[in-house]
Amino acid sequence: MPDTSSTASVLPLPLPLPLPLPHLLPPLAAQAEHLIGLGVHELAVMPADRLRTFAEDADSGHGDVLLAVHPDRVPASALAPLLRHDGKPGFVVTDMPDVDRFAPSAVELPDTPLYLVTGLDRGDHMANWSPDEALPALTEEDRTPLLLTEGIHWVLQQPAVLERNRCFMTIGSRLRKANGALDARTPAIWISNGTGRDGRERRNAPKIGWCWWGNRHTWLGFASATGRGH
What we know:
Layout: H1 28-38, H2 40-43, H3 48-58, E1 65-69, H4 76-79, E2 84-85, E3 88-89, E4 91-92, E5 103-104, E6 114-118, H5 131-140, E7 144-145, H6 148-157, E8 167-169, E9 173-174, E10 185-191, E11 206-212, E12 220-222, E13 224-225, E14 227-229
Parallel strand pairs: 4-11, 8-12
Antiparallel strand pairs: 1-6, 2-3, 5-9, 6-14, 7-13, 8-10, 10-11
């Protein structure tokens, strides 16, 4: 469970901005081959050539477009172990066994097994904001928050996006409870310190965890995009 901090009624002062992230996303064809090499096509129960053909047809020549597999085809729990940081595989925290029930919330996905995510941003300028504060700000900027699976895809293709003390939440994924209310947890991707139930052997491993909707964390931004398409 993450640390907690109180939420004030006003937005916090922004933290110093880091240097902009370089656009290091590979071409779509290379992204497709990477997913095939990881066996994602098998998890999605589709031929490898379907990824290759989609990437070839969709390739725009830009370096800031992410190839994503619809979460209905490959859930977060299946993608998480494919992550790597410091040579260690990713994992989902033990107190999030329902990770795959976190579904798109106020986010429209293309009704296709494969789609594109454009204009990715890690949201560093919103570090130390709560999700409750960040979501309306993203909406005002005409941006859409990333899903957890999209965030995992981003780190799979551009590992440098996951930096210690510069990690991110994926508030496009929420869990709706049986009574219709939204669960107060929100998914995030960061780097384990190897403490508590994580285990020392997982220090520096990519970690799928959660934070409370109303809390702020100085080391978590809010990943977002300009849009999705196919």
